[in-house]
Write a structure and sequence with these properties.
The protein has helices spanning 26-79, 82-86, 89-102, 137-144, 194-286, 290-317, 322-325, 327-334, 336-340, 359-380, 409-412, 421-432; strands at residues 10-13, 108-114, 120-123, 149-153, 170-178, 184-192, 344-349, 384-391, 395-402, 436-441, 447-454. With 465 residues, the chain is α+β, with helices and mostly antiparallel strands. Among the domains are: 29-192, PAS domain (Beta-Lactamase), CATH 3.30.450.20; 323-465, Heat Shock Protein 90 (2-Layer Sandwich), CATH 3.30.565. Strand 7 (344-349), helix 10 (359-380) and strand 8 (384-391) form a beta-alpha-beta unit. The chain is rod-shaped. The N and C termini lie close together (12 Å).
């Protein structure tokens, strides 16, 4: 900032510094509950589907392993001969008849029998018979530790080229079988994965019905309770607002009574005393008691100054009715205190700037000017103050500028500074009204305030500079 540049604007109240608290309404309270319940429902559906799918797949793999074990013991093992290993056509045909008659169905869709070296000695797919593929490590372990193993196969291996048309995934089960001479072979079967999806659907329907109905029942129970609580909160708010209204009215009545007492009593008596003292000064001068006349004139001036101060105090205690007197006369009355201290106050009111303003806007402008002039009188040591009100871009704009000593805003407005309680209260009022309040000040650069109050027809924001 150069010597001629004004200080930067600081936003004290506005859209970026917090909004006025919204009125409590059933929709605002119930909406989070409903959306929260929907969110929980979605989470339950997703997690339940995943859990049901995993459980179904696990059960399907276990069932496939059991079926393969039964088939191996009752069908494959009795039909297995040593000649099958050597590729005898009759042995292969006998095994094929047994497999097609007793094994292949909607569940089992492919059968293979392997040697330890990875050669397919039998398959219901003739093109695979005699082919050699490297056996995976887990399948080789079955020869070392005889057991039945089942898993979901993604069909990525070269030996699965003839199974890929059966689906993207199949249930693969393999276990050892032995020829009459004791040679171990690997019996492998592939079952359809469609049963997993059907079982998942069954499990999910049972799980979802209970969960969703419980959740809906909970919502049905919660909504009346919340509605009742909202009613109580609204009643408490109405009672609180009524108490505040009565307190404000009582305060206003008391201030009116005090102002009336001062105006009709003290000020009238001081005015009468001023006339008496002024008359005494004239009479003293007429009899050439000049020293006494001077003292009486000084006393009369002091009384008149006191009357001016009392009238300024009346404006603070009980401001004029803005709707009756108008905003311009009310603002002019506020300047009385500064003018009594020989501070020049200049008003710059644009065409129709203070006409047709709603009462709330008038009160807010009056409140801001009152606080600004109060701070100027107490701290600024200013010689001149300029107050302007204009209409601009759908808003009433108030600007107050003094040529005083200025101050450091961030330090003065610190939470620990008790001198700025009035300003902090003013900021709350401006924010509650949905208006903007900006401050520009620096030591030796004076102080500038800007208030922008939206009027019907538009919302405009204060400039950053």
């Amino acid at each position: 900032m150069t010597a001629t540049e004004p200080p930067e604007w600081i936003a004290l109240a506005g859209p970026s510094t917090g909004a006025a608290p919204a009125a409590l309404s059933p929709a605002r309270v119930l909406a989070p509950i409903v959306f929260g319940a929907l969110g929980v429902l979605i989470v339950v559906i997703v997690s339940g589907t995943m859990a049901a799918s995993r459980l179904s797949e696990k059960e399907a793999v276990r069932d496939a392993a059991k079926r393969a074990g039964v088939v191996a013991d009752t069908v494959v093992q009795p039909a297995l001969t040593d000649r099958l290993v050597s590729g005898d056509p009759e042995a292969v045909a006998a095994m094929d008849r047994a497999v097609r008659h007793h094994v292949l169905n909607d569940l089992s869709q492919r059968v293979k029998i392997w040697t330890r070296q990875g050669r397919v000695v039998y398959s219901d797919e003739p093109a695979l018979v005699g082919k050699v593929f490297p056996l995976p490590e887990d399948e080789q372990q079955v020869f070392i530790h005889p057991t039945t193993r089942a898993e979901v196969s993604a069909l990525h291996g070269a030996e699965n080229a003839f199974e890929r048309h059966l689906g993207p995934r199949l249930l693969e089960v393999y276990r050892p079988v032995w020829t009459p001479s004791g040679e171990p072979l690997l019996f492998e079967t592939y079952a359809s994965y469609d049963g997993v999806a059907a079982r998942t659907d069954q499990l999910w329907r049972g799980f979802a019905g209970l969960t969703v109905s419980s959740l809906l029942a909970l919502i049905v129970l919660i909504v009346p309770v919340v509605w009742q609580l909202l009613g109580k909160v609204r009643r408490h708010q109405e009672q609180r607002e009524a108490l505040l209204t009565r307190a404000v009215e009582a305060s206003t009545d008391e201030r009116r009574r005090i102002a009336g007492t001062l105006h009709d009593g003290v000020i009238q008596e001081l005015t009468g005393a001023s006339f008496v003292v002024s008359g005494a000064a004239v009479r003293a001068a007429a009899v050439e008691q000049h020293e006494l006349a001077t003292q009486l004139r000084d006393a009369a001036a002091t009384v008149r100054k006191t009357i001016t101060g009392m009238r300024s105090l009346l404006v603070d205690i009980y401001p004029p009715n803005l709707r009756t007197s108008g905003l311009a006369p009310a603002l002019d009355d506020l300047a009385t205190s500064l003018r009594s201290r020989e501070v020049e106050v200049t008003f710059d009111l644009g065409p129709d700037a203070v006409t047709d303003l709603d009462p709330a806007t008038e009160r807010l402008i009056y409140r801001v000017v009152h606080e600004c002039l109060h701070n100027t009188m107490r701290h600024a040591l200013a010689k001149q103050v300029t107050i302007s009100v204009t209409r601009n871009a759908g808003a009433a704009v108030l600007a107050v500028h003094d040529d005083g000593v200025g101050f450091e805003p961030l330090e003065a407005l610190d939470d620990g500074d008790r001198e700025c309680v009035g300003v902090k209260t003013l900021v709350d009022d401006v924010r509650h009204a949905g208006a903007d309040l900006l401050l520009s000040a620096a030591p030796g650069a004076g102080t500038r305030w800007m208030l922008r109050v939206p009027t019907p027809g538009g919302r405009a924001h204060c400039p950053a500079r």
